[in-house]
Amino acid sequence: METVLIAILCLLLLGMIAAVTARMPIGRVLTYGGCLIVCLVILGTGLTSIAGPIQRLTLPLGLPGSGTHLRLDALASFFLVLTGLGGAGASLFAIGYGRHEEEPARVLPFYPVFLAGMNLVILADDAFTFLFAWELMSISSWALVMAQHREDGNAHAAFVYMLMAAFSGMTLLLAFGLLAGPSGNYAFDAIRAVSPSNGLASAALLLALIGTGAKAGLVPLHVWLPLAHPAAPSHVSALMSGVMTKIAIYGFVRIVFDLLPTPPWWFATIVLVLGGITAVLGVLHAMLERDMKRLLAFSTVENIGIVFVALGLALAFKANAFTTGVTLALTGAFFHALNHTVFKSLLFFGAGAVLNATGHRDLERLGGLIHRMPRTAVAVLVGCIAISALPPLNGFASEWLIFQAILLRPELPQWGPKLALPVDGALLALAAALAAACFVRAFGIAFLGRPRSPAAEQARETDIWSQAAMLIFAGLCLLGGILPGVVIDFLAPVLQALSGARIAPQVSDAWLTVAPITASRSSYNGLLVFLFISGSAVLTVAVIHRFASSGLRRAPPWDCGFPDPNPATQYTAASFDQPIRRVYGAVVFRTREKVDMPSPGDTRAASIAKTSHDTIWELAYAPIARLILAVATVLNLMQHLTIRRYLGFVFAALVILLVSLTLWQ
Amino acid sequence: MDMMGALLTQFAQMALVLGLAPLLTGLVRKVKARLQRRQGPPLLQPYRDLRRLFGKDVVMAENASWLFRGVPYVVFAITWVAASLIPTFATGLLFSWSGDLLVIIALFGGVRFAQALAGLDVGTSFGGIGASREVMIASLAEPAMVMIVFSVALIAGSTQLSTIAVFMQSDAVGLRVSLALALVALIIVAISENGRIPVDNPATHLELTMVHEAMVLEYSGRHLAMIDLAASLKLLAYASLIICLFLPFGLAGAASSPLDYAAGAGLWLVKLTGAGVLLSVSEMSIAKMRVFRVPNFLGAALMLALLGVLLLFVSRGM
User: Fold this and answer.
1) Which of A519, A537, A555 is the last residue of a domain?
2) Are residues A389 and A490 in the same domain?
3) Which end of chain B is more exposed for a tag (fewer CB within 10 A), N or C?
4) d(Cα A136, Cα A124) in Å, to the nearest integer?
């Protein structure tokens, strides 16, 4: 507990030092090196304290009379592991990557503060500290989004982000206000102790869902995320996508599973439905995106959807007091959150490395990087396989657990979850298949094929620090995938605290097989699958090279006899996603293609025009924006009046107030 | 001894599927040819093709990367592992608990992922067109497959293939609407996953609608042999899967005598032959679809399977 607190103070201190040293060459190494060490300390504390007793601390800071309450329990420890891991990786990556920063003074001071804010949210044990840390996290990340403010669109992204962050903070403030009641006791212990009335609890649940969902990127509150996450420098994008969204999930779990009594089933249904829609919509957007970092941000939306589906399952089971289901679903949710931290950070590192090497984020200008950036390519490939939920990597293990939770099919008396469960199963499967398609496209267009621009042709492998960060995270993807039992056992204290039960110990099973319920029901052994595949592959290679041919000749590509040396004849990202765009986009985004094919003999160029609509933006946000603009235009008339008229307004307002007060009484 | 016996059976299964896979492909080709009143290639032609390809040098595109070289082996290895996890002549094989039905589907997903990447590696338009269409088809086939697994798993109370097969052999199954829907959906999915008519045509080149063949166009020599062998294995695996889920009678139990195993294997061969003949007949009687009609075809499978699962969730005790 004290260790983490000191670590947070160190981070704040590092931020101050960075403000001074940012322009010096030593500043980068000092800041990121310091952050790396501090994050490793936090990671270590999280790893050790997860099974330990609950630790509390009250500091005489903050609101007068109440003080700052801090608490470190199993749930907080697990999320400290996430922040520690993600922060350490991003810092290691940034030691090398930060060299390319044009204005380090806009990044370095805020980076440690951002980390400090996220860690403080996890420790907070009263609403005031929680919201303070929440806003610290938002503001510092906003500053980081604005770091490259001269680039097109970044200022807009930061503006939308600011609005949504304020909205999220406001709803959480209201939620805590409702929970604390008229007595205004904001300590979480006090909130746990009172049992709010049904109406109050429902309102608080919905507000908490909106507040944390807006921060996590739950549809329809996700619009800021694909704008803001890519705008920041890549290591910050990794933190925002990989870690900050998990802090939002932490907030949701803390409020809904810990502070409030068991939520009713209709709330579980809402979470299930929103989660399923988020997963599919996020990945569809990602599939059709050509900006590499925006693609990753949309894929974050997808993964948040998957986690929320698992949380919704847990809520549905909890509403029916089905503890086995709660533990299984929550394990899946936490495991997936951990996995997403690892592979999304890795992929953002990869995107950053590519961006540095080529100067492009646009997939259509990349290609062939596997030859010029071999180590980055390997690491990113591992990340792509993991995020596509393919065995034997970690993404599959967590999604497998979530599927198993759906398949428990307990006796759910309510129609809501009963219908939502199978539909969510289908949506998750759809999201997984589309994610595989999306990352085949992302990796295939960026790293395979022939270079589509001179910059991609001259790309050079990234620096050693960035490589180390990527390869370590790629190793973690593999480890988490082949040893899922270790992670599940590691999560047991968290589940014990949240649901009062745990999944049977997995590590003691023969060959480290994972069997969450019983072996005859379902089992998965990532280690054996990995060994089988690599074993038979090696065996095949050996046998063939020994007994069959081993010669190899290089020749021009075959391409059915018509190879064209021009790289423009390759499949592009847009041509790759065309079938998917036609099948799904026509419904979801109302995409249309207009082909203008000149008749024979006509010499004008043929052309194709694509149109698509962001349905949610147009339905939910554009009307609000238009309304505000209309009101502002009307009010604009009042901007250039004389002082007498303004005084007249003030007087009139006073009179109206007084009259209405008199009438009311 | 027990352990040795279990290991031996497992290896027998692995060898069996590997050895028989080209034969099934040859059978389908032969029956199809006979139905078209052609003589057709001999039954063992796929083996000869493989031997010929294995003996040849590889001609690889100049800009192909290590990924292109590795993919055939990975594709073959994953397919082989997946095929050995599906019970063919006996349930309860030694390694069967290392992966359930969801793992098997995901393994096939991994095969597709690797192949699509290899299709993009050389940077030709044919590779791209194949990869792009393959992932589009998979984006519908995979969820349909998962829904089929849901139907079966919810009825049998397990995703473990051995447990499901044992359950399906028992009287507890009865006639169920959901299973019928799942069977129809599974057949559609199996056809599309193996690139058979009407989704794709394995016997064609230089046709605008080809999918799988376009993806592997750049491969030659031993690499092509691995990929062809993997495709045959996949066909066999899907046929065995349908048999194991819906016609499991005669499967030997967990610890049976060698005689039971032999009987199980014989029955499996008969069923497999039947499946091959049925496939040939169906391929003979329908025409290849346009690519953009495939989503409707697969969408129907997805909806049927989803309907089956919804029925299971809504109606208890059925």
Assistant:
1) A537
2) yes
3) N
4) 13
**From CA B256, how far away is CA B252, in angstroms rounded?**
6
In contact, B204 and B233? CB cutoff 8 Å: no
Residue scoring higher pLDDT (A65 or A292) = A292
**Domain final position from A522, A537, A552:** A537
> Phi and psi of A514, rounded to 5°?
-95, 120
Number of H helices and E strands in chain A, helices first, is: 28, 5
pLDDT the model gives residue A117: 96
Q: Which among A404, A421, A436 is the nearest to B109, CB-wise?
A: A436
Instruction: Confirm if A360 and A455 have CB atoms less than 8 A apart.
Output: yes
What is the span of the domain harbouring residue A469?
266-433+446-537
Inter-chain CB pairs, A–B, below 8 Å = 280
Asked whether residue A114 is domain-assigned, the answer is no
Per the model's pLDDT, the better-predicted residue between A499 and A468 turns out to be A468
The answer to whether B131 touches A579, Cβ cutoff 8 Å, is no
Tracing tokens 């007084």 back to the chain, one arrives at A658
Q: pLDDT tens digit string along B50-105?
A: 999 999 999 999 999 999 999 999 999 999 999 999 988 888 777 777 888 999 99
- Residue A286 and residue A374 in one domain: yes
- Is residue B209 very low, low, confident or very high in pLDDT (cuts 50, 70, 90)? low
User: What one-character DSSP code corresponds to residue B199?
Assistant: T
For residue A272, what pLDDT band results from cuts at 50, 70 and 90?
A: very high
Note whether A511 and A660 are same-domain residues: no
Among chain A residues, CA nearest to B295: A583
Beta carbons within 8 Å of A659's beta carbon, 6+ residues apart: none
Is there a domain that residue A152 lies in?
no
Least Cα distance to A105 among A23, A28, A25 occurs for A23
Please state the φ and ψ torsions of residue B228, each to the nearest 5 degrees.
-65, -45
Asked whether the predicted pLDDT for residue B318 surpasses 50, the reply is no
**Distance (Å, rounded) from C-alpha A594 to C-alpha B268?**
53
Q: Model ipTM?
A: 0.95
Query: Are the beta carbons of B234 and B26 closer than 8 angstroms?
Result: no
Q: Across the interface, do A448 and B65 touch by the CB < 8 Å criterion?
A: yes
CA A211 to chain centre: 15
Tokens, residue A331: 């394990």
User: Over chain A, what is the mean pLDDT?
Assistant: 92
Bond preceding residue B41 cis, omega within 30 of 0: no
Instruction: Please provide the average confidence, as pLDDT, over all residues in chain B.
Output: 90
Q: Is the dihedral of CA A85, A88, A93, A98 positive or negative?
A: positive
Q: B16-59: per-residue pLDDT in tens? A: 999 999 999 999 999 999 999 999 999 999 999 999 999 999 99
Contacts of B161 in chain A (CB under 8 A): none
Average pLDDT over residues B101-121: 95
How close is the nearest chain B Cα to the Cα of A520, in Å? 6
d(CA B25, CA A561): 28
| Nearest-by-Cβ selection for A549 from B57, B98, B139 | B57
Same domain, A377 and A502: yes
Spatial separation of the C-alpha atoms in residues A655 and A248, rounded to whole Å: 46
Positive or negative: CA dihedral B274, B279, B282, B283: negative
SS3 sequence of A338-404? HHHHHHHHHHHHHHHHHHHHHCCCEHHHCCCHHHHCHHHHHHHHHHHHHHCCCCCCHHHHHHHHHHH
Q: A429 lies in a domain?
A: yes
- The sign of the dihedral angle between the CA atoms of A517, A523, A525, A526 is negative
Query: A-chain residues within 8 Å CB-CB of B306?
Result: 422-423, 426
Question: In Å, how far is A619's CA from the nearest CA of chain B?
Answer: 27
Q: Structural domain tally of chain A?
A: 2
Closest CA to B143 of B313, B314, B295: B295
